[in-house]
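Before a computer can learn anything about folding, someone has to put a protein's shape into writing. The three-dimensional part falls to structure tokens, numbers that each stand for a local backbone shape. The protein below has been through that process, and both of its lines are reproduced in full.
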Amino acid sequence: MMDRFHFSTCECFDNCPKRFELRYKKDIDTLPSDDPANPLILGTAIHRGMEKDMETAIREYVNSYPVITDEHINEIIKLEHWIPRMKELLPDGFHEVNFKNDVYEGTADLLVPCTKYDGELEHGQFDLYDFKYSNNIEHYMESRQLHVYKYFLEMIKGIKIRRMYFVFVPKVQIKQKKDESLWEFRNRIKMELDSKEIQIRQVIYDYSKVVDFYSTCMKIGLTNQCNENRSYLCNWCEYKEYCEKGETYMFNLPKPTRRHAGETARRKLWIYGGPFSGKTTFADKAPGPLNLNTDGNINFVTMQYVPIKDTYEGRQKILAWQTFKDVIDELERTAGQNGFKTIVVDLLEDTYEACRIFMYNKLGISHESDAGFGKGWDIIKTEYLSTMRRLMNLDYENIILLSHEDDSKDITKKSGDKITSIKPNLPPKVANKIAGMVDIVARVIVEDDGTRTLNFKANEVIFGGGRLKNISATTIPLDWDELVKVYDEANSNFFEESAEDVQNDELEGAEEEKEETDTIEPIEVKKPVEKKIEEPEVHEEKPARRTRRTRKVR
């Protein structure tokens, strides 16, 4: 639940009260977008490029996705075109300036001190710039945003906003033709970029727009029931499938918050690698494991297992996907009572194929395309992701997904060179959604000397990454205890003082300094280091492990 009003929250309420309720009142997060042209991710990259540099912008854009495709490279080409031009066009100033009081919070993209360019002006005057990566110029020119920013900046910071500007960075949204090579298409993108110009439009202050903003704030405070407002904006809403179909698989786990000392950490992992790389053996070392096994390779591990395969009850064939769903039902019903602490799905891609066959049988089709344009794919994806969401929400200490890796696809760099993309053996759109359900996606690598390591670091060709923040290691030995140390390091950060609290103190100091210097200083956020809290050791009765089968020497 929000503690202050923001311009974006009020705009969200005006556009659709239901979306406002889901996002801000119920705090329902959704799986990260896998769209290379996602407006929020691209807009953030442009802001980061202006605040820091091109390399930082591209790195953060790349890190926003589990794996990079040719479509992502196309968007990077556009960023590399526009960010230097923005830097050349705009004056120097203070980037990403936060301002807040007990009622309102906002961030100014760029504040330019007027006296830097006109010494005769009175000190404390600034020009305000806001960046928009959009072609919808007229919509933003009518927006309340800059009027509200000026009002609260002057109130909170005690400065004078002389002029306000929107900086419109044009979007190039052409599509590749069927008979066009990727090299030809990218040349056409560059030609289209060269034909566009950044526009800087001045906005004249209108206090009535501030009054209108306050009116929206009052409506938010007085509204108890938030109804849907169907419009063309629904096509870009993250809750569209929930509102229209009741689907919830896209809902993400709650954001990590402070936990009590001694509370058990829950781990959700997706590990992939080549055959015989040690994935199943690694999972076997987890506490109290149960293997939902699809390939029968369980001879040399000791964990208990449930085979996920087609079976018969009399003459009735029970498909593997139905078995998988039945096991999830049972695990859900007996959580905390059956003695298992770790659920392993081995292999994940086999469960997806089982889902496809199950839905083929249910729909009476032999391929997704038989159900009509896009319908078959959508039905199967929804069935699979909904079930996987149930699995990931099970109340067990560890959920581990295992996959083989796929290195059969290439992506083409800007230079035209082809490089191999390494990712789990699962369709990309499904893989990206699964990645949003786990803490870490890691790849097992077997070195030339036989050493096995677990690698978290992703790049433009390696699918990976995760939501664990401020961890120092990107590569660890393939050992369960080493993985636990990574989680312990991440969990210890939850006990640190929040960056927001530190920034509040820094802002107060910056305000005092501003009274003497009439400048806005950049804020450096420092986090204090706290001692790690040792958790008490708890002994519990564990499910019996199977006896490891030894290889016979022939």
The radius of gyration is 27 Å. The chain has 17 helices and 17 strands.
